[in-house]
Design goal:
Chain lengths: ~250, ~250
């Protein structure tokens, strides 16, 4: 984050007449979670700085300290080129309505062209006034359960931040985490487990019906394959077999 | 929503030892926003029902009323077949780590095969214990700013719900909302505005340098095209031209 939040990446988050410090703080925390830095307040109900906001920010102090406060929405967006208004209610206006996913894609593309964006969030319960919506280029509407669309303020900010952060994300959809001291077992190590287990099962009389042995072996091998053993776990399981056998042989 | 929350769609949300009623309520609200219905609590710190939770649920009473409380995580997940553990911290375990997006896709596919899923959320600040993580099939990790990954409990629940809801969503990325009483202008109506404006500009001497007129006309038409006028707005703007001209001619 640069000393001037306005110069850092991502859209500005502009809260219009926020009422509860807690919500401002939770919104700041959500921004920090997602790498957004530029928070602006228009006429907050309570004084600023606000200790409830600081507490709820839960460590997102860089955001709270960078907050700028304005008297009007016009002043808060004066340096921006593209403004989105978040609203769940349909407004009787001719205006483009975009999803969060589409909005952040546009913001990212715009940022490449040095076009700065901001997003307006209305006050708790009431949302944005039509006059504020009319200052925006487009409406940002979060697709939600139509029977219950009223989002908590911090959740609304979080949706924006979450989608923004995912844009640049290259996390694999799914990856098997393996502790540093081990690694996935090789097929040869797994075969060692199969051989060990099947030998002891033979020895213990588990395969009483000989003609069923092939299918039973396949089924046992299947479930063990699915578990994706590490080399360490193969050793643990071979120890388990040895231990169980010892009890029987005693 | 069915009378028994467990029969409704979507994964169960299982909060382990939640401390603040407010967070339970906000999580319930987030679930309702996203069409999730099945909330379960394991050893909440405060008594249940909890008036702070009810207040923070902000109308998501169906979720709050459907909550089931358990003494152990094992009991809370007994009827489920797939369990995901949310955690930001790496654990020294061999376990698959999936993104929210991947997790909900799997849950949806599993639901088709009548496989029920649930997601474990740890207590505020501390997160899940390793013993709870070990009850899960996979870790659900939200890709976030690596310098600040600690999510508010309700935000974590919201990410799950948001991704779940988006799966079934078919909202257009961007659509121009137009008030019912009007419609986008046709090219012929727009041409009428162009002709009217250019005629009056000719008349007022705006195109002093004749050879520049073609490019000026193109530029004016360009910006007006971009505005995507409605038929109503065309009439308004033609009224504006007439009104401005009247002042000059007076």
């Amino acid at each position: 984050m640069t000393p001037d939040g306005a110069l850092a990446g991502g859209p500005a988050v502009i809260l219009i007449e926020p009422q509860l410090g807690e919500n401002i703080g939770m919104a700041a925390r959500a921004m920090m979670n997602c790498g957004l830095t530029d928070m602006r307040l228009v006429n907050p109900r309570d004084e600023w700085p606000n200790r409830h906001a600081e507490a709820a920010a839960a460590g997102a102090t860089a955001i709270i300290e960078g907050v700028r406060v304005y008297d009007t929405t016009e002043a808060a967006i004066a340096d921006l080129q593209m403004v989105y208004a978040t609203t769940a209610r349909p407004r009787d206006m001719t205006m483009e309505v975009v999803t969060p996913c589409e909005a952040v894609a546009r913001m990212k593309a715009d940022e490449t062209g040095c076009v700065r964006s901001g997003v307006l969030f209305g006050k708790e319960a009431k949302g944005l006034k039509n006059d504020d919506v009319a200052l925006a280029n487009a409406i940002l509407k979060v697709p939600l359960n139509p029977a219950f669309t009223s989002l908590n303020l911090a959740q609304a900010v979080f949706v924006l931040g979450y989608e923004w952060f995912q844009l640049g994300e290259e996390t694999e959809d799914a990856v098997l985490a393996v502790p540093k001291e081990t690694r996935l077992a090789t097929k040869s190590e797994l075969q060692g487990l199969f051989d060990h287990l099947e030998m002891e099962l033979d020895d213990s009389g588990f395969f009483r019906v000989r003609e069923k042995k092939p299918i039973m072996v396949r089924n046992i091998r299947n479930v063990l394959q699915r578990a994706r053993f590490t080399e360490q776990e193969i050793r643990t399981f071979r120890g388990i077999i040895t231990s169980l056998v010892k009890k029987r042989k005693r």
